[in-house]
Amino acid sequence: MTTTTILLLAFGLGAAFGALSQKTHFCTMGAVADIINMEDWSRMRMWLLAIAIAILGSAALHASSLIDLNKSIYRTPNLTWLSHLVGGALFGIGMVLASGCGARTLTRIGAGNLKSLVVFLVLGITAYMTMRGVLGVLRVNTLDTVALTLPGGQDLPALLAAAGMAPATALALSALGLGGGLLVFCFARRDFLTLDNVLGGLAIGAIVVGAWYVSGHLGYLAEDPDTLQEAFLATNSGRMESLTFVAPQAYTLELLMLWSDSSRKLTFGVALALGVVAGSAIWALLSRNFRWEGFRDVADLVRHLAGGALMGFGGVTAMGCTVGQGITGVSTLALGSLITFAAIVAGAWGALKYEYWRLMRED
C-alpha cells in the first residue's frame, strides 16, 4: 500500500464525513443545545450512536488483530487527567462561542460560512502554539505535570485485566458493555428512528472504524525501509490515527505556509480535514444549501475569535475534540477520552446556560 493510496482513502473518508454531516445535521454543540432548548435528545443520540458503532467496530478490529489500539495516542500509561478536564471544558466553551466544534467548522466552511473560515485560522494558529509554541511550554509545565501513571494502560480493558480478568474477556466486556449500552439507549426512543438520525450515527461511527483500518492496517509497516522500525504511513503522530480535527487544522496551516519545505508533507489528518470541506461543499451545492455567510457585527466576530482560540488550546491540551476524543478516542475505551468527553459536554452546557441567561437579562 502506497502513501498516495492512504492519503486518497483518508480524503475519501473525510469527504463522506463532510457530506453526511451536512445531510444529517450532525453537530455535537447542537446536540447539547437541543437538550437545553427543547429537551430534544435526537442529535445527542446520533452522537452516542456514532460512539457505540465506533467502539464495537474498533474492538472487533483489535480482537481480530487487524489493528492494535495500543498503538494509538489514546492508550498510554500516562493519564493527564487535569489536562483532559481543563482542555475539554475550554473546548466545550469555545465551540459554543464559535458556533460549532472543529469538525463543524470544516463542514460550515464547505457550505460557504466565512465565519468558520476565521475560526479555522484562529483555531489552527492557537493549536500550533499549544503544540510547539509559547502555549505549549505553559501546558507542559503546568497542566500536563498533574498525571497518574497506570503501567498496564489507561483503557478500560487494561484496567480490568490488571484486576485479574483475561484480556480477551476484558475487551469484550468493556466494548459490549459500553457500546451495547449506548445502542440500547439510542434505539429506546421511537422518535429517534428517522433516516437522518440513524444514518448519521451509523455512518459516522463506521467512518471512524474505517479510518482506523486504513491507518492502522493498510498504512502499517512492520519495518520502514528507511528507519528499519515499524511505522504508520503519512501520520503526524507516528502512530495510527483516525478522525480528529484540531491538530490537523494546525498542520494544514503549517503545510500551506511551508509548502516549499520538502520536509513538510501532506498527512493523513490533513487529507481527512480537506476531505471534510470538499464533501460538505459537494453536498451543499447539490442540495442547494450553499450560501455565503459573514459576521453580523463586531461582537459576533469577537465571540468567534475567542471560540476558535479556546478550541485550539483546549483541543490540544485534551488531546482531541468532540470527534477526536468524543468518538475516536472513546472507541479505544481510554479513560482519558471518557474524561474529555464529559468535560466537553459540561463546558458546552455551562456556556449555553450562561448565554441564555445573558440573553434573558438583555430582553
From TrEMBL:
Pfam families: Sulf_transp
Family under the similarity heading: Belongs to the TsuA/YedE (TC 9.B.102) family.
GO CC field: plasma membrane
Alphabetically ordered keywords of this record: Cell inner membrane, Cell membrane, Membrane, Transmembrane, Transmembrane helix, Transport
Record-annotated membrane-spanning stretches: 6-26, 47-67, 79-97, 117-138, 158-186, 198-215, 266-286, 307-327, 333-352
Name listed for the protein in its UniProt record: YeeE/YedE family protein
Membrane topology summary: Multi-pass membrane protein
Coiled-coil parts of chain: none
Statement: the UniProt record of this protein carries the keyword Transport: yes
Statement: the UniProt record of this protein carries the keyword Lyase: no
Subcellular location: Cell inner membrane
